[in-house]
Amino acid sequence: MRRIIVFLILSGLAMNGLMAQDLIFGAKAGVNFATLTNNDDYNQKFGMHFGAVAELELSENLYLQPELLYSAQGYKRDFEGRTLRAKIDYLNLPILFSYEVINDVRLMAGPQFAMNIRSELDGEGQEVQNIPVNDLDVSGVFGMQINVDASFFIQGRYQLGLSEVLLNQEEKHSVISLSIGFLFDQ
Known about the structure:
CATH architecture: Beta Barrel
Shape: elongated
CATH class: Mainly Beta
Strand content: over 45%
Radius of gyration: 17 Å
Number of domains: 1
CATH topology: Porin
Largest sheet: 8 strands, antiparallel, barrel
Number of helices: 1
Oligomer: single chain
């Protein structure tokens, strides 16, 4: 719990430094299709994400887009005739740069830092168990955003894990996210 509070305070301080600029806030939500890399035994797990978005125009066509999101990730695995579901939930802080390549279409990329807030494994006829995961996850994120109008957008992203998810194992996150969002005060 203490790590979550420290993470939120640091996120707030980072956002506060941007507040003096012309910053636009918003909200977004969407779906995740998550799994782990380096092992064909893992299947995609459906999850969701939601949270706050900020947008700062750095120059013509170049934007900084920090976000603070709750994200339900994990994986499914068939094991000994049962389907096991790993629920690995994070508080994500992506810090993305986006470039408007043509009117209302942006390409985006940047790092994402995430703190684990829940990690459970459940299966048919099995008690819920905690999964030993790393508390901090680092990923590279890239994707595309289409601005439908001045305040409504649609995003598609891929999150490629750079750090190990499970303790002492090589698996990393692989997440496809689809989102819709709204920017306020435009």
